[in-house]
Amino acid sequence: MANGNLQTELLYPDLEAALESADMEGLQEICASLAAEDLAEMVNRLELLNQAIFFEKVPEDKATEIFQLLDVNIQEDILNAVSNQRVAAIINEMDPDNRTALLESLPQNATRQLLSFLKPRERKQAQRLLDFPKDSIGRLMTPDFLAIKQDWTVERVLDFIRRNGEDKETLNDIYVVDDKGRLIDEIGIREFLLSPLERVTQDIMDRQFVALPADHPEEEAILAFKKYSSRTALPVVDEEGYLLGIVTIDDILHLEEQEATEDIHKLGGVGALDDSYLDSSMMAMVKKRGVWLTVLFVGEMLTATAMGFFEKEISHAVILALFIPLIISSGGNAGSQAASLVLRAIALGEVQFQDIWTILRREIFVGLILGCLLGLIGLLRITVMSALFGTYGEHWFLIALTVYLSLIGVVAWGTIIGSLFPILLKRAGADPAASSAPFVATFIDVTGIVIYFNIALLLLKGKLL
Amino acid sequence: MANGNLQTELLYPDLEAALESADMEGLQEICASLAAEDLAEMVNRLELLNQAIFFEKVPEDKATEIFQLLDVNIQEDILNAVSNQRVAAIINEMDPDNRTALLESLPQNATRQLLSFLKPRERKQAQRLLDFPKDSIGRLMTPDFLAIKQDWTVERVLDFIRRNGEDKETLNDIYVVDDKGRLIDEIGIREFLLSPLERVTQDIMDRQFVALPADHPEEEAILAFKKYSSRTALPVVDEEGYLLGIVTIDDILHLEEQEATEDIHKLGGVGALDDSYLDSSMMAMVKKRGVWLTVLFVGEMLTATAMGFFEKEISHAVILALFIPLIISSGGNAGSQAASLVLRAIALGEVQFQDIWTILRREIFVGLILGCLLGLIGLLRITVMSALFGTYGEHWFLIALTVYLSLIGVVAWGTIIGSLFPILLKRAGADPAASSAPFVATFIDVTGIVIYFNIALLLLKGKLL
After folding, report:
1. Per-residue CA distances from A27 to A24, A46, A93, B155 (Å)
2. Backbone angles phi, psi at B178, to 5 degrees
3. Looking at the predicted structure, is the pLDDT value of residue B372 above 90?
4. What are the chain B neighbours of A229 within 8 Å (beta carbons)?
5. Is B259 a domain residue?
6. Residues B443 and B345 both lie in one domain
7. Do A329 and B442 touch (CB under 8 A)?
8. Which of A87, A116, A171, B275 has an alpha carbon within 20 to 30 A of B241's alpha carbon?
9. Quick one: which of A146, A220, A226 has its CA closest to A187?
10. Are residue A176 and residue A121 in the same domain, yes or no?
């Protein structure tokens, strides 16, 4: 049984040795015994110099296949390290969708240079794909698909596939177009494989198909693949229904993973990293995290300002200060919960802007119950401590009541803010994930202090204060 | 061009009307004009009574196709609402992998009852799949695949597919087994479609394949599909290499989405929801969130205890209390960042336990720099406020120094704890996502107070304190 991980572990030293001693036979042998994905994983670990040798020496088609599996930033380094001739060979052979992903990530002059290496037909195609807006479905698309006419027999279709299928990314779906090239049906290869050879395509068609508009955002493609989950490719059309290309599910799986990572990082208050955690340099890490941490810190400085307003009250009743972290962090936690739930619901397409009143109603209700729950625990604690040790003096009940009411107010407030932030951000055209939990928490820390001291003033004025 | 969402919107009232007036012809018409996924979306919105009518009246194969697309908890309700005869028809026709997902989610006696409805062959198969451990690859598997022998010609293979492919979930990959049923190769349908009819399978084989062990955890399947991203199905084998079934990519896409949702919810300090956000009842919501919020609250009560130890110091220097929220929340934010980065890196398989020292080294470095950065801003603020308004009295510089050093200590501490928690939890066999940001923040709130006041005592003893 093939076990890629074990094999790559064993063969890695051999690969390094073969490259360093220019042992072409050894290199060929290793390439023949492993899947492209395993080779890509090994190449990923090589020093840049050895990577360059690898891509210079391996046959062109194999080189391109492996090159396409690498991360875009590694592709960039390699293109800079190999000969121009090799660069031209690789980028001319790349799948159009992978090529777009590379070209769009490069600085403009590098993109221009690479485009100049392309053969006229490929260049025109690459240019057309780049003309679609960033993060649109058009940018994910490959224009290599199989289109047939509805009067063809199954036999003719299979024959056509045999003769024209070689350079297509997938043969799992076949597209039926009319004389003008407009998409009229999508048929799984399954139907052709299971039908008698003499049946005509028309008799297989059900004219039910799902097409993605090329200029729509890529999120729509993710949602469509999730809904129509038996499809491994979906056709892409322009406004008039002309078939432009297809999007394949492998790109979607990566996109989905990428978006979840971004959301999780943002939820943790980190800008999205360009590289994986261990591949990011420490300085990149400091920068990405430092920026947000500083913004949060500056916001959080308002807590000191807010507390400054109540300095007199604190000095009269130091006991009040003891509960500040407890109260504001409970509000922050409740807010984080609400924000992460709503954020994910937005990402999954479960929640839209028109649901805002439903959400608000739910969250007020949930927030009040949660606030009462925590408030009761706080009330209980102060009561017990007072009964046992007399910790909170003669006004213990008023203090307990202050804490109780403050918790209800701050937790409900946190819940509402946490749930509304992502929806309102999304509505404003901003990224809802930017309403990350730390932002919500910081906002609630500051407002929570104000709520707490105002309740204290109301209840304790003339007694403790 | 087909636009599923618009069509379902338009046809939904018709569907309701057809069901309520028992208009079978209208029902048939609607079913014929929409994709199964669109019908499933509409059925999802129906009242349970109408759902029951729908599944009672629609032809068996269509009913099963749509039934399989619904969420498991809706499937349960429907099975309870339709006749036993219909239940038997549907669960006998379901794809084995979807059936396992339903059976494993039911209470034991319901599972037993459903199993009794199955035909002997199906029951044996269902039982065998349920025998695999929960969350294992075996539970994701469907045993309906196409296996061929290596001496068959392409023509024979295509013929075999035409005669036996009907009930197979995918025809995209064909599996070559030896005489005993051991997997010896996996070949994309593409190869057969592109090869001359008289070629023998042996000549197409490259004996390179990736097989998933049935008893391994499902996460391995996700990682394998991400790595071998051109595959839409992967074979599953037992320890001796016998081919048991296949896992298809549609299940993986859902699994990946589910796992990301769980991680995001846990990161926000919420137990994973069973239903989507809007489908969860408010009481379920209160329960899921209340439990964690209470645990966090009880933990956070230690902040009041910790501050209680320093009550005398606070009453001497109320000014010190003003900076508590700022300092502890900065530590918490730094911790959330580190935790979410490491958590995601673990989920993506980028980081293992043996990387712990690398991570520790990086995070100490990053934490100290970030702490210095925030500390400097704090120092600057106190200096400026002192110079302008004399806010902090004669000992302003010592206060500033206390805040500066505390921020370095607490931020570095938060960063280290936030990064180590997920790795250590994972190592201990627990879910790393349980080290959610709020937990890390609560832990750091309490310890941060201790750090802050100890530094204050050290610097300010005999001056302010």
Report:
1. 5, 14, 21, 36
2. -85, -175
3. yes
4. 37, 250, 253-254
5. no
6. yes
7. yes
8. A171
9. A146
10. no
Q: How distant is the Cα of A22 from the closest Cα of chain B, in angstroms? A: 26
Q: Judge: B449–A329 Cβ closer than 8 Å, yes or no.
A: no
Give the residue from A253, A273, A308 where a domain finishes. A253
CATH for A76: 1.25.60.10
Cα–Cα distance, B219 to B241 (Å, whole number): 20
* Interface contact flag, A227 B41, Cβ < 8 Å: yes
Q: Which of A131, A161, A196 is the last residue of a domain?
A: A131
Set of chain B residues whose Cβ sits within 8 Å of the Cβ of A365: 282
Q: For residue A152, which of A193, A191, A203, A188 has the smallest C-alpha distance?
A: A203
Q: Nearest residue on chain A to B294, judged by CA atoms?
A: A374
Residues of B in contact with A208 (CB under 8 A): 2, 33-35
B323/A333 touch (CB, cutoff 8 Å), yes or no = no
Model pTM?
0.75
Beta carbons of A289 and B366 less than 8 Å apart: yes
Facing B324 at nearest CB: one of A158, A265, A324 = A324
Q: Give the distance, in angstroms, between the CA of residue A217 and the centroid of all CA atoms in the same chain.
A: 14
Q: Are residues A224 and A353 in the same domain?
A: no
pLDDT digits (tens, 9 = 90+) for A325-360: 999 999 998 998 898 888 888 887 788 888 899 999
Task: Let me know if B10 is exposed, middle or buried by CB neighbors in 10 A (0-12, 13-18, 19+).
Answer: exposed
The closest CB to that of B377, out of A269, A282, A297, belongs to: A297
**pLDDT tens-digit readout, A357-391:** 999 999 999 999 999 999 999 999 999 988 998 87
The number of distinct structural domains making up chain A is 3
Chain A residues close to B343, C-beta within 8 Å: 264
Per the listing, tokens 């595959």 go with B231
| Beta carbon pairs, A and B, within 8 Å | 376
Same structural domain, A118 and A161? no
Domain of residue B202, residue span: 147-254
ipTM of the complex: 0.74
Distances (CA, A) of A227 to A121, A153, A183, B35, B264: 35, 31, 21, 11, 21
Distance CA A50, CA A18 (A): 10
Cβ distance B344 to A263 less than 8 Å, yes or no, reads no
A300, A193: one domain: no
Q: Are residues B106 and B176 in the same domain?
A: no
Are A277 and B344 inside 8 Å of each other by CB? yes
Asked, for residue A140, whether it belongs to a domain, the answer is: no
In the DSSP assignment, the letter for residue B273 is P
Of B165, B193, B252, the CB nearest to A194: B165
Helix axes A249-267, A218-227, angle to 10 degrees: 110
Nearest-CA residue of chain B relative to A169?
A: B230
Q: Is residue A124 part of a domain?
A: yes
